[in-house]
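Example 9 (inverse folding). The structure is encoded as follows.
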């Protein structure tokens, strides 16, 4: 079989048998297309000819190429995809050796998530004030994302029925795992105002859809639209920094921990499978406390 056919078989496996999300499968496809193109350029058209040295050379190529060399985190992601692919080939009997098994990802630098302050979040949310349908939608969207820590894919994937009794929302995360997250009073009010005063009008402009957040033509709001909405709100708020959908998720977690929330509760709210992923936010909180102490205590410096 060709490399492309093996890649297609692997993608069917992760989509159907492992039930990975469409976004994850698409990411795997992009990574493996790059891998397959590099193998072809190296004259490798049979995966049985790939060796551990081949995989190592591929990573070296990605990290040292003249145009757009990958960062350590991107290299680690690419290696993870390639390792999963080669493990599948071995399990399926398509090769006799898992050549990527002992290849190690590059050491990752410790990078803390970027959160913004409570005042900055307030300014961002205030920048969506208005009575037009788009304003009401943007207010509801951003209030909900900050209130729940939802990923952008989870927010745009919401249906009207996922808002339960107005005070909790059902989010569908990675691997189609669902979790129930409370809505605070500000988010409740914003979502209710949107559902009553804006969504019916937006819905009338397109085909019937269960989607909660709609674009101006009545279709489900896209991830790209959310980026543009947040960027525009940040500009109106004169924050002077780049704000992304994930910024609201980072801020949600950081502000909860700073307010005394237990890290395992925050883990559940974020939908993290491991508490280790959530604990990185405790480092952000500790850094904030250290900065305040240093600037405020007379004998700290």
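The amino acid assigned to each position is listed next.
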């Amino acid at each position: 079989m060709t490399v492309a056919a093996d890649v297609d078989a692997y993608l069917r496996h992760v989509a159907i048998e492992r039930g990975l999300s469409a976004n994850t499968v698409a990411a795997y496809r992009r990574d493996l297309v790059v891998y397959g193109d590099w193998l072809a350029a190296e004259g490798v058209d049979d995966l049985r000819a790939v060796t551990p040295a081949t995989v190592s050379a591929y990573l070296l190529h990605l990290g040292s190429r003249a145009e757009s060399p990958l960062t350590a985190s991107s290299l680690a992601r690419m290696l993870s995809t390639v390792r999963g692919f080669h493990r599948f080939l071995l399990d399926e009997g398509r090769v006799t050796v898992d050549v990527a098994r002992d290849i190690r990802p590059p050491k990752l630098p410790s990078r803390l998530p970027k959160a913004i302050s409570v005042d900055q979040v307030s300014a961002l949310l205030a920048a969506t004030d208005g009575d037009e349908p788009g304003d009401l939608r943007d207010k509801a969207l951003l209030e909900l994302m900050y209130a729940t820590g939802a990923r952008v894919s989870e927010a745009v994937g919401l249906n009207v029925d996922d808002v339960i009794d107005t005070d909790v929302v059902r989010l569908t995360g990675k691997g189609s795992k669902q979790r129930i997250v409370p809505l605070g009073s500000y988010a409740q009010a914003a979502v209710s105002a949107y559902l009553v005063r804006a969504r019916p009008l937006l819905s009338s402009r397109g085909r019937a859809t269960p989607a909660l957040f709609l674009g101006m033509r009545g279709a489900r709001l896209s991830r790209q639209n959310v980026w543009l909405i947040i960027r525009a709100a940040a500009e109106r708020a004169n924050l002077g920094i780049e704000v992304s959908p994930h910024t609201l998720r980072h801020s949600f977690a950081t502000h909860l921990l700073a307010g005394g929330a237990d890290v395992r509760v925050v883990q559940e709210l974020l939908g993290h499978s491991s508490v280790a992923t959530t604990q990185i936010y405790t480092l952000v909180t500790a850094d904030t406390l250290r900065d305040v102490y240093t600037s405020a205590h007379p004998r700290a410096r």
